[in-house]
Design goal:
The complex is a heterodimer of chains A (about 60) and B (about 250). Chain A has about 60 residues and is mainly α. Helices cover about 90% and strands about 0% of the residues of chain A. The longest helix of chain A has about 45 residues. Chain B has one domain: Four Helix Bundle (Hemerythrin (Met), subunit A) (Up-down Bundle), CATH 1.20.120. Classes of the chains: A mainly alpha (about 60), B mainly alpha (about 250).
């Protein structure tokens, strides 16, 4: 079990190449996803704040 | 006259539609990528034969080919939306073009990065001014140029038009990348990019490669639509429907 896992990780001696290629891919896709989620929420929050400010201004 | 397809060309009706589509694309992307990873790592041989035997590092192929295909396909889609925008003057088309660009740039970078890493054990060098590598690098600069030009112009309408024209001129790079092969005969040189056909690829490897590409494609749909949503909100912040939506965000 253990040796099988080590064998998998070593990728026939090319671990550095294989994992840096896959690592970079997964990292960039992950960063893009998280960034988009955050950006979307930030915009909605900003618009909500603006709307509240406008409404408060109307009542005065 | 209203044509049926133009119903969703209005940001107000496109926005809720994307809200329903995005989760579907995420699920599909995750499923395809996981299947491709499993198949690529556990159901394919450890070593490829042929005139230029490839050891374990060939597994980079699954993301490398997928990313390279997506880099060209997304550029073609970017240009298609840009052209539709220029001809029909539809706001949403420009937003689509604009939303594709960052994802396309990421896949182009990944194609270059994974190719460099593959080139080291296979070619003995990370980089060479091989026609395909060079033209893919130019494609990367085109994406960056499109994004930079668009963000350098403050007025959105002018930015849309200028950046779209640049993108259309740059379309010439896509066929160049596709047909740029330095080594027509694998028996005479050991280049990575040889003339090949899908039929020459082993079935298991082809399956993992195509599934990964499908996963990347679904991922691109999801990220593009998410970016379009943000753009719609920003650009249409003054309209009544966005203000209604901001009051009750769960409806979007």
């Amino acid at each position: 079990m253990m040796t099988k896992m080590l064998e998998f990780i070593s990728q026939g001696g090319y671990a550095g190449y294989v994992w840096s290629a896959y690592g970079m891919t997964m990292t960039l896709l992950f960063i893009e996803t998280v960034g988009l989620r955050r950006g979307n929420r930030a915009i909605l929050a900003r618009l909500q704040r603006l709307l509240r400010l406008c409404n408060a201004g109307d009542k005065q | 006259m209203t044509k049926p397809w133009s119903r969703f060309a209005a940001p107000a009706s496109f926005y809720p539609l994307t809200g329903r589509l995005i989760p579907v694309f995420w699920v599909l992307a995750a499923a395809f990528i996981l299947i491709a990873l499993y198949w690529g790592f556990f159901e394919t041989p450890d070593q490829l034969g042929g005139s230029n035997a490839q050891k374990g590092y060939y597994r980079i192929i699954f993301i490398h080919v997928g990313a390279a295909w997506m880099s060209m396909w997304l550029y073609a889609m970017l240009v298609a939306w840009a052209a539709v925008g220029l001809v029909f003057k539809t706001r949403l088309s420009f937003m689509m073009a604009n939303a594709i660009a960052p994802t396309g740039a990421i896949f182009t970078f990944l194609a270059l990065w994974t190719g460099a890493i593959w080139g080291r054990p296979s070619w003995g060098t990370y980089w060479d001014w091989d026609p395909r590598l060079t033209s893919e690098l130019i494609l990367f600069f085109l994406y960056i140029g499109y994004i930079a030009l668009h963000s350098a112009i403050d007025d959105n309408r002018r930015a849309d038009r200028a950046a779209s024209l640049l993108a259309i001129v740059g379309l010439v790079m896509v066929p160049v990348i596709f047909w740029s092969i330095n080594c027509p005969d694998p028996n005479q040189c050991a280049a990575l990019h040889q003339r090949s056909g899908l039929r020459k690829v082993d079935g298991n490897i082809l399956f993992a490669m195509l599934t990964m590409t499908l996963g990347f494609w679904m991922y691109s749909f999801a990220t593009t639509l998410m970016r379009v949503r943000s753009m719609i909100l920003t650009r249409e912040a003054e309209t009544a429907w966005v203000q209604d939506l901001v009051r009750a965000p769960e409806r979007g």
